[in-house]
Amino acid sequence: MSAADFQPLSVAEAALWRDELDARGHRLVFTNGCFDLLHAGHVRYLNQARALGDALLVAVNSDASVRALKGPSRPVNPEHDRAEVLAALRAVDGVVIFGEERATRLIEAIRPHVYAKGGDYTIDSLNPEERAALAEAGSAIRILPLVPGRSTTATLQRAAIPEGGPRRLRLGVLGSGQGSNFRAILDAIAAGSLDAEVALAISDQADCAFLETARVAGIEARHVDPGPQARRLGDAAQKEIAEHLRRARVDLVVLAGFMKILRDPVLNTFDGRIINVHPSLLPKFKGVNAPRQALEAGERESGCTVHLVAAEIDAGRILGQARVPILPDDTPDSLHERIKRAEHELLPTILASWSPET
Ligand code: GRF
């Protein structure tokens, strides 16, 4: 049977089925719920319900009734899909979709032999109308224990999908200088071409255009003292940076002209989630003064590279590159300016297509 062929039972068909079972001396167990994101708690519950009789009928709340019960961000999955997935479970023999918040009308129509309900209810807390309908139908009521820690809400939380949809990519940006790449990121966000937010900007330089850009944009701006050695970022500074990034719940760390070398705990905390922009076509011209290196090597073209950061400098996996020509009268500065214009295009583009599996 193809997916499109699946059809839930109508209420009339379910009632007929119950009568057929009854005629054979079999017992129909009935339960109902939203069953939005199936988890092991559902499966165990349905297995137990099925064991109470000879066949299990599940009534699935329609999309409108789930919205009424759980709020506008639910259900995650549409009613027909939820019914189809349920029907594929070994414990489930039939599925109906129902539009009311309560199962009263179904109980009246189907008159199940057993009515099963999850353990967040007691017999007393069952809806009075449902209880009356069950009494009228002669249905036995069985409350089954809930499986602790297994719920759709817990599943959604673990998947970090907040109510209202997934959150935007949170960036932590590190820089040491002019901050032109940082401004390119902010411009792309403002233009809507990059769906992200900058949670935090960190610099090893107390007074630089990079940090000022963050302050002007109202972004948390942190100066981290690099420590006693001018060219090396000390252990305390490495820890402090990791802590700031962790606290800001950053998804991705962007080195936009950050002139110090990162080590653990930053590298291992954000393993595979730190990217750098470098002004050469790596693997050529690693390290400092890359535009000057390209000129001195007599290159006819150079460019920029966005790459993952690994322990070895400028050697992580390349995510994207852009080429620029080298002109006859270029100086290191003029070439670097041309390369930076290419960086301002490349970096936001790579960020816009970022996923942890990139
Ligand atoms: C860029 O050329 C980048 O490739 C290198 O440092 C420079 C930073 O420039 N790592 P800016 O601070 O973004 O203007």
Label this structure with key terms:
single chain, 358 residues, alpha/beta, Rossmann fold, seven-stranded mixed beta sheet, five-stranded parallel beta sheet, 13 helices, 20% strand, binds 5-O-phosphono-beta-D-ribofuranosylamine
Description:
Helix 5 runs parallel beside helix 6 (128-137) and helix 8 (180-191) runs parallel beside helix 13. This protein has 358 residues and is of the alpha/beta class. The chain is built from 13 helices and 12 strands. The mean pLDDT is 92. The longest helix is centred in the last third of the chain and has 21 residues, at 332-352. It has helices at 11-23, 40-50, 63-70, 79-87, 104-110, 128-137, 152-158, 180-191, 209-216, 235-247, 266-269, 290-296, 332-352; strands spanning 28-33, 55-61, 94-98, 114-118, 140-144, 169-175, 196-203, 221-223, 252-255, 274-278, 301-308, 318-325. It folds into 2 domains: 3-151, 3-Layer(aba) Sandwich (Rossmann fold), CATH 3.40.50; 153-159 and 166-352, Rossmann fold, CATH 3.40.50. Bound molecules: 5-O-phosphono-beta-D-ribofuranosylamine. 5-O-phosphono-beta-D-ribofuranosylamine binds at residues 175, 177-182, 210, 256-257, 277-279, 304, 340, 343.
